Amino acid sequence: MRAHEAGALHGNDAAPTWLPYPTDVNTLIDGLWSRNTSRNSQGVVEVGGVDVHRIAEEVGTPAFVLDEDDFRHRARSFRDAFAEAFRPHRGADVYYAGKAFLCGAVVRWIDEDGLGLDVCTGGELAVALRAGFPGARIALHGNNKSVHEIRRALEAGVGRIVIDSLDEIELVSTVAEELGTRASVMLRVTTGVEAHTHEFIATAHEDQKFGLSITGGAAFDAVRRVLEVQHLDLLGLHSHIGSQIFDTGGFEVAARRVLDLVARIRDELGHTIDQLDLGGGFGVMYNTQHTPSTPEALAAGIAGIVEKQCHELELEVPHLSFEPGRVIAGPSTQTLYSVGTVKDVRLGGPHHRVYVSVDGGMSDNVRTALYDADYSCLLTGRVSDAAPEVVRVVGKHCESGDIVVKDEYLPGDVRRGDLVSVPVTGAYCYSLASNYNHVPRPPVVAVREGEIRTLIRRETEEDLLGLDVG
Ligand code: LLP
User: Fold this and answer.
1) Closest ligand 1 atom, CA of 279?
2) Ligand 1 centre and the CA of 403: distance in Å?
3) 151: CB partners within 8 A, 6+ apart
4) Which residue among 84, 94, 164, 437 has its CA within the 20 to 30 Å range from the CA of 298?
5) Active site residues
6) What's the gap in Å between 93 CA and the centre of ligand 1?
7) pLDDT tens digits, residue range 398-412?
């Protein structure tokens, strides 16, 4: 494990204060790697019984390597933890947030494991339906749903449409009327919580595009309107405060404000809100700075918060639901890259920084550039006893911000052809991937019990050229 802070004696002196100097740079740090990851007797990292050289040979690099058991174990742990914590009341369901990572296989796992599925576009809905996911366990989100998306959702019998604006009430009601059906809806409310996370992934403060404001009155007006219109059934309220959140303080404030609204609806409209969705957003460990809770601790903490607030307001605890994405998908996957150019850049005085270029970059992981995310990295193709150096892992794109891992210790002898892995890339990496610089997107392969199964194949130049029909 990493033991002490980097000092002038160590490496190239470019380490940030949070990054301790490693006692053994070959160690798989606890919490960063999926459950079936280890080094074999040759010092090569294996996942799901397959070593990274075999993966590189069979599917090439870069590649997203998904530990199937790990993903499913996390999904079931969250399902069980929330169900258990709310068992004394009306129970709780977990909807996997497909935006984190979605493909047919994931949809089938989520179905088999009995979770619901949160989709937020027609495209995500199409993946779910093609894989045979039951409409009744789907929640459709989106701040700007098209008529086509709403129609498709209603035709598929989705269990809930989460309405995000006043005009969407009329839109969903009209489409439901046209189809001669009724729509079960939740209203997404904005609680005004300033979640302690990156500005771009906080979603409950007032000045952003999602939801209906509680303090501004739009949320109450929306409830009244939904109860008035003909073709909507109000299931309950929805709140999502943001992502990569570690403390339950934000959920506490959000739950209090939503439950205050539930009490007001009871008192002024005589209507009982039976269901509450508190969204997702639970943080994961991207590096040693992060200390996530267990599903059990999170669920128990939130259950305690909701029980207390309900008790004070003399409300029955509603049926709860949650929508974790990152905590299920993120830690299941590592991105396997091949090292290309290694460049030692002088920074003035004694300082220098080693830039290790890999064969992907911001097209397969834009989170570092977009959110200033901190990832970690490990030499996975072999062990080394060379002294650790602080490196910056960069991609192959024509952009200086094309950084995958800002700061990490790698062995000083890392060289062209080495295999390195970036862990915890299962959420919002493939799903945010692009073709920037006409770089084809990597495949996603599932590994399990010594087998490699391609879930999403590598994009080819032909795929890219095929879109260019002008
Ligand atoms: N429910 C709703 C309504 C959401 O908007 C989100 C995330 C989730 C659930 C799932 O949140 P999670 O448990 O995965 O944190 N691209 C960003 C994250 C954007 C999340 C958007 N909504 C990132 O890479 O950090």
Assistant:
1) 1
2) 22
3) 175, 178, 179
4) 164
5) 398
6) 17
7) 999 999 999 999 999
